[in-house]
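My current task is to audit a protein record that another person submitted. Please read both lines and tell me whether the tokens look consistent with the sequence. Do not assume that whoever made the record got everything right. I have pasted the whole thing underneath without changing anything:

===
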Amino acid sequence: MWPWNTSLSHFTHYFTRLIDKRLHRIESLTSNQMFTTTLIQLSYGIPGVILYLVVIYAMIGVRRILNKSFIVIFVLTSAINFLTWLNSWLMLRLRAEPWFFFFYEVALAVPVVRNVLHFLVLYFYFAQNVCVFLLSFDRFAAIQSLTKNIEWWAKHYHILTIGLLMSTFALSLGTRVPIDSNLLYDHNTMSYNVHYEFTHLILSLKVQVIFGVGTLIICSCLNIISMRHLFLLRRTRSISIEISFFLISFCIFLAQFLNLAIVTTYTICFVYDLRPDYSIIDDLLNFTSDVFSIGPAFYTLLLPGPVRQFVVRKVKGFLETFGFVWPTIVRSFS
């Protein structure tokens, strides 16, 4: 073997090892970044789920000053939001986490598992929009009932709720059947990617945007009328209570508006093949989805009103049994 062949061999070996080290470093950084994102999302997601239980407990505690329909719809919204959040973790957020790859291997082996979970991603989107409408209309009906007799809502809201959820279930089936989703491992991104039949995906995205925009327009009208009516009424204790719960409903509406904006952006980019950085859009969509799915538990407690007062009073009583002195700043918060 010639000397320069030996040198070339050593150089090639060195260069190959250098590239391997660089690739390993890139993979490590990518993995760490994904792990950090997962931790951040869990850091507020898990407390949000726990706070939902606290909020529901508080609403039951103040049920004497709150109409039954709002409690039922809020509990339904909380349940759907939790299932949406959980399903998004199973099918969307952990696809790049190696410790969870076993689940996707099971989903690949059992098509019904991945198809059902992928279908629920779409259906929960519709169901969440239905909940936004129900909350907006419930507050509209409650505020209007201060001066008008609209008892029909209190008697028949459950029928409308079931009807809308069943209708959107049928709509989801109509835009996604046959369900042809698949999971493929991408060695470049070191993650599982969801693949759909292109025609069905385009139809599904368009229907989501149209349905979301329609819901947004209707809820906007209801909220504008409700706000105008509240401003015209003389401020009393009952009006203050209605304002508090209207703000909760309105914040949920704003969160869904933000979520719809990201979904619409994603749809436009996908349909017109604009090829943006989908990882950024996915991160934004995960965040806006959390604002809508987990957020209500937080801002229900942050907004002033009977729910926050009830929770603060219970926490205060519990801590005082152990001799804890309630700080002045916390007393003012209640």
